[in-house]
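Q: How would the structure tokens look for this protein?
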Amino acid sequence: MSASTDQTFDVVVIGAGAVGENTAERAGRTGLSVAVVEDALVGGECSYWACMPSKALLRPGAALAAARGVPGVAEMLTGELDPAPVLARRDTFTSHWHDDSQVSWLEGAGITLIRGRARFTGPRTMTVTAPADGDGSPLTTTVTARHAVILATGSTPVVPAIDGLDPSEVWTSREATSVTDVPASLAIVGGGVVAVEMATALTDLGTRVTVVARGDRLLTSSEPFAGEAVAAALTDLGVDIRLGTEVTRATATGETGTRTATRLHLSDGSTVVVEKVLVATGRRPATTDIGLDAVGLDPEKPLAVDDAMEVLVEPDGAGTGWLFAAGDVTGRAATTHQGKYEGRVAGDVVAARFGPEGARGPGPGGPDAPDARTRERSAARWSQFRASADHRAVPQVVFTRPEVSSVGLTEQQARDAGLAIRTIRYDLASVAGASLVSDDYAGTAQLIVTTDTRVIVGATFVGPDAAELLHAATIAVVGEVPLDRLWHAVPAYPTVSEVWLRLLEEAGL
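A: Here is the predicted structure in token form.
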């Protein structure tokens, strides 16, 4: 038998990853009661299987490469990375896959955690099912939101069907970032961010890596020179890169040494024999199996939202009035930092719209209903929160060697949008600060500038620690700062940031 309970809150957030946590905290700022529903670890993908563990795996190799670029230090280095301490350090960043500290944070913020899988039964109402303590009978909770539900369920990896390859045996990013037994050989199917980062990290740990990508270059959503630089660096590390190629089928080969192996047959007629296969062919919004059909939405599609993150019944149609979404589940921008930004917008909108002084108040005609002036003031307040950065100022970093950081539009995207632009590019190695970082420093900086307003609409940096150059570009793009004003933002000398002065000189200032 199953036990059941009923709970009601002002706001319910489904998903307790980084996006959901931020959303819940912001939603409760005006005194609304908030609950978060989570069926896995509080902290989500970023904390345990994505951002944190992947960067923890990548950092030791980057530190070693940086040291090798400095005479006087390079001569002291006699070996390669030791996988055991690298993995042990990674484990500390994932809290050994325990979420106690994150649960404590929720409790400290006054947010109620409900463990289990949520499924809508109607507007603002859902059932949450979780195993009960003791005999294991399921515990079902009916959870109702008085005002709003915010979806922050993230995304799931896409695993294409490959003849002969058991989906349960392949790695996704989760298995790669939580690896404990480093394989001798690995094939990575895909050429995007996960593919190139994990190719770097696993090669650093001693794995022989082959990358199989059907595109004609890596990082196809970035500037071409960025993908080319990463491909060249991976090749120098010993990674075998097969572009314009797909896996057509897989066959078992029995044993190689003491481990089983798989032979991948490629579309160019060649084969690759590896111990493990990592599929990194993208992710899809996690919209299935949460009962979206019960509220009139298609569970097979990303959730269409407006810039206040309110879910639309139809794309460009009317909002639901109560359902919001943030992060990967919307299909707008699949990065943790952008998802947290959307979560802050959604949480602020809900807090202002439905809080004690909200425009919609606690109910029409009730004793605590706000007066007309309060409603007008609150409506003006929550209408200011809009996720405008999702359209023109999305920042992203690829933590390979070299790093790739970018914000805004690529050159091709700007031209496709009909903008009249000028591309300004500069060799980072020519900046004095770069030569101090490393004798073999190599990199490129590029700005996309409109020819009429002379503002930056896109920027890409490729090189060691290129991520540290990104936020200045993000501010310039978001602020629409004209080049002649940026000329007065003097970069410190000698730093790599001096490239900003050189780029402006290239622009004629």
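Residues 402-506 form a domain with the Enolase-like; domain 1 fold (CATH 3.30.390.30).

Residues 359-371 have pLDDT under 50 and may be disordered.

Upvote if useful.
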